[in-house]
Design goal:
The structure is a homodimer of 567-residue chains. The first copy, chain A, is an alpha+beta fold and 567 residues long. In chain A, the strands form eight sheets. In chain A, strands 3, 7, 8, 9, 10, 11, 12, 21 and 24 form a nine-stranded mixed sheet that branches. A five-stranded mixed sheet of chain A has the order 16-14-15-17-20, covered by helices on one side.
Chain lengths: 567, 567
């Protein structure tokens, strides 16, 4: 491919909405171009890398015995009503009416259509298990799309769904996909962690996320050297146990004008660890207000509250002062003493505390020397958000925190969709049984971004060889020089007869200009044909290490051909 | 691939909305599955064929030096306003609002986005020509989607756009794409005709359609053995010349209660070829009524009227009786005599007639012995619809008619979009000049249907080898028979080591059942492993000819491997 005939469109300027390296570099290298907020067009170089990323995923999915299909992203309302998600999904679901005023959506995920298809295609236990998958465009109308392909409104996902006869079968399919994902992310040369993820109402260890480590990631990963790793939403920590004390008598204290528990602790001259903080939620599904109590220096993990209440994310919010008043307390002065047990959720750590301060359920008052069991009761559970240096729930050592980009997730759906949508099979005894499902997603375009986050420097992208848009670019210092042109053309022809994907930069521009372009684009090998062209000597630059070595052109070709053959 | 692990979903029943073979067979073979009217999901076998069709197109486009990109089908209103098509497009354009109430459409074509992209990416004549293309899903909200993938609401198209410095460059790009399309449709083994197509206001020989011949096609092709071929909308014919007569005097006749020109001719006992028919249109863009006059046995070609008026298709309709009255005539009795010339379009054939009957522009009256020039004038042009057995405009012999499926179109856009959207380049003298554009479409999913229309029989599809989902299926008569299983497995393993894509039908079902499935699906080679398995003898069925030959399995493998290598 000659550079003069290619749509190369590198930019010097950093686009003003771009803050993270992958966004900046995808735009500056001319791989993608923004069409609208969170919607991008893929230019030739970007599309080549995208297809390579897709193909690596496809190869590993096919090897695992999954079968590729392609479902329309324009899906009728009826399907989404059957699962109940048409109403549950908020404004992130893009809705559209056809000319006959029938409702459709641009699907953000494909549980419904895969469940519906499988319910028709599979009738007997003999046909199970099956793992259909697709690589398809998805839509999520983010309020504030950002970070380029990382959080866009249109993105490409690989989504797979497994259908099994029972949970044992699901465990096998889940394990197969888990291992397949390891192979896939290994092939992308990503530095990633597999973490326990929240699996909602289903609970258990029913979900894992594949997190590419990066300071620009939007997810917090809590992990321990012992091997424990979890998404911050899911992470547990060992509850601390306070030193035992004699229980003292309750004592009301006047605490006017203090907004936070820290201010109260300060006023009373005690450690904030000797206080208990309250957070009130309104469960809109069950029309119920609950107050969560955690140690004063902790935060409530809302996901854990949601899972405990068995309510969907859209149907919970902070309670209003009025709703708080209705259950007999006062916003800002909430405490567990005297409340009904049904309105109270208590973090287990609170049961390990002595003589602590709580709200008095009365304006401008707190109570000192509260003690669990003696003074109040309630549902005890793990409610607190795990943080860096909290103790590992497995080994008890302080945990660490890293930021990650969620590039994949595996999830045991169990029978949630198959029951709702009548996706059943006939078992050996002729009984109708719902299929047991798992779902498995990989953010294809997000993975492309994650690779850049891990592989770049101040000059541009450093694509790993197997996802680079081209493997090598031949850059003559001056293409109009006869010796350089002859050698460059010769190398181009020779490489074109191999599997190596090659660009010849025949443009009328300076060596520096051309080098900058391809360093920005991140072509793994840059072969400079310069002043020693007549001797057949070229300079080969390895973009990953930025090392430049002079060598005979035959040797350079051999090196590249071998590298490409060993991809 | 083992059939027991595949999502094979053949149907015995013909779906009740399917009338043409490709629709029936795509559904019955389990290649696609309807999700909503005109929206289909691609099951594993269908997706494999779709990808092969796409890849053949991609290979030939790449060979021609075109560069693949991928543009979102979700496009902002602003782009479509810039070209003026947001308002011109009617209800076939699917429109959607995002959560911020901004307008988007699901694009039916991509002139806007390609023009916009190129205007940014290309600045200088040095970068031209370029031919970016994409293979992407498109949307057209058909009032009545039908014929499966042939006229669906969601379909896949390859669309390419060429950008040149001048019309000479455009001619070259057009020619290159024309030749590339011939290569592509040859590789699909389609029997097709390339026909002159209407190119609207641009005129000239600025468009060709590639028509796969089929009785189920929706397009009429008028052609002559001399080589002339045109879409019926575009086709010309040689005007007939009536035998010369002495001009007689005008004579008013009372013709009450006759609705059609045939009734009038009958009443007056004359050949309908001695009458002139009138059709009135209302041009909503220029607020003007025009009456078109053609010989009584002819029809007006509305496209020719539209091109003459230079109005877009959505802005023309039949005139109402009131609009007709406004220009001084009467619906049902319209004639050219006495009308203003600006309201009259006359087919050239009318100027070759003598003493004919026309409407009297007065209720219940016609006029006899009208003659052009003596009695009336007006704009003369080719207005009539060409029909089978009309005379060829080139050689004068009677033309023939066939029906075709439009699978591709090439079109000279000239500067329509580049001027509207400011897609310019700097020429050698530093002058800003609009790029000269062409556009080139192939209906990818429609081509898949067209192949089936030409390659099927009463048993099912007969895929050409290069687009078949798999090349061969091994069908043991009884897989549980040890000799059959051993040989079938051996052949499966041997073929898996080659490029041949193979299915082993290991299902517990009768030979007849399994054969029916794969004849319906249209796998090119069916290798039956039956009672002579122990001797190493198989039966090889060629699905294209339906011939079955017994031979040693090694010979069968050799035959298939060779065929696949020669694809």
């Amino acid at each position: 491919m000659k550079a003069s005939r290619m749509l190369i469109a590198t930019l010097k300027e950093v686009p003003n909405d771009a803050v993270i390296p992958s966004h900046i570099l995808l735009i500056r290298s001319g791989m993608i171009k923004k069409m609208s907020a969170g919607i991008y067009n893929y230019l030739p170089l970007g599309l080549r890398t995208l297809r390579k990323v897709e193909n690596i995923i496809r190869e590993e999915m096919d090897k695992a015995g999954a079968e590729e299909i392609l479902c329309s992203c324009l899906q009728p309302k009826e399907l989404w009503e059957a699962s109940g998600r048409w109403y549950k999904y908020g404004s992130e679901l893009m809705r559209i009416k056809d000319r006959h005023d029938r409702d459709f959506c641009l699907a953000p995920t494909a549980e419904e259509v895969f469940t519906d298809l499988t319910s028709v295609l599979v009738k007997s236990y003999k046909q199970l298990p099956v793992i259909p998958y697709q690589i398809q465009t998805k839509y999520r109308d983010e309020f504030r799309p950002r970070f380029g392909l990382m959080r866009s409104r249109e993105f490409i996902m690989k989504d797979a769904y497994s259908f099994d006869v029972d949970t044992e079968g699901l465990d096998k399919s889940y394990d197969l996909m888990y291992k397949t994902y390891e192979k896939i992310f290994d092939r992308f040369h990503l530095n990633y962690k597999i973490v326990l993820a929240d699996s909602g109402a289903i609970g258990g260890n029913g979900s894992h996320q594949f997190m590419a480590l990066s300071s620009t990631g939007e997810s917090d990963i809590i992990y321990c050297d012992c091997g424990y790793a979890a998404d911050a939403e899911k992470a547990e920590s060992k509850a601390e146990v306070a030193e035992k004390e004699e229980m003292l008598s309750l004592e009301e204290v006047h605490t006017p004008n203090f907004k936070t528990i820290e201010e109260v602790a300060n006023f009373l001259n005690i450690d904030v660890k000797k206080t208990v903080k309250a957070v009130a939620y309104r469960d809109l599904e069950h029309n119920k207000t609950v107050i969560c109590f955690v140690r004063g220096d902790r935060d409530v993990n809302e996901i854990k509250v949601i899972n405990e209440l068995g309510v969907s994310e859209e149907l919970i919010r902070m309670a209003t002062p009025e709703e708080i008043a209705e259950i007999g307390t006062v916003d800002g002065f909430m405490g567990p003493i005297g409340l009904k047990e049904e309105n109270v959720l208590i973090d287990i750590e609170v049961t390990n505390m002595y003589n602590f301060v709580v709200g008095a359920n009365k304006k401008d008052y707190h109570i000192k020397n509260a003690n669990f069991n003696r003074d109040f009761k309630g549902k005890i559970l793990d409610l607190r958000l795990a943080k860096e240096s909290d103790l590992c729930p497995i080994c008890g050592k302080p945990m660490k925190l890293e930021r990650g980009i969620e590039v994949g997730q595996v999830f045991k759906l169990q029978t949630k969709y198959s029951e709702a949508m009548g996706c059943t099979y006939l078992d050996k005894n002729g009984q109708t049984v719902p299929m047991v499902m798992g779902c498995y997603g990989i953010g294809v375009t997000r993975t492309m971004s994650a690779i850049i986050e891990q592989y770049h420097d101040e000059f541009g992208i450093k694509w790993p060889l197997n996802v680079a848009p081209y493997h090598v670019v031949i850059v003559p210092a001056k293409y109009t020089d006869p010796a350089q042109q002859e050698l460059a053309d010769k190398i181009h022809d020779m490489l074109n007869d191999t599997k190596v994907e090659v660009i010849l930069d025949d443009r009328d521009a300076s060596l520096g200009f051309k080098m900058k372009d391809f360093e920005l684009i991140g072509i793994p090998y840059i072969m400079i044909v310069g002043r020693r062209a007549a001797e057949g000597i070229v300079e080969l630059k390895d973009r990953m290490t930025n090392e430049k070595v002079e060598m005979p052109y035959e040797e350079a070709i051999k090196k590249i051909v071998e590298a490409v053959e060993n991809i």
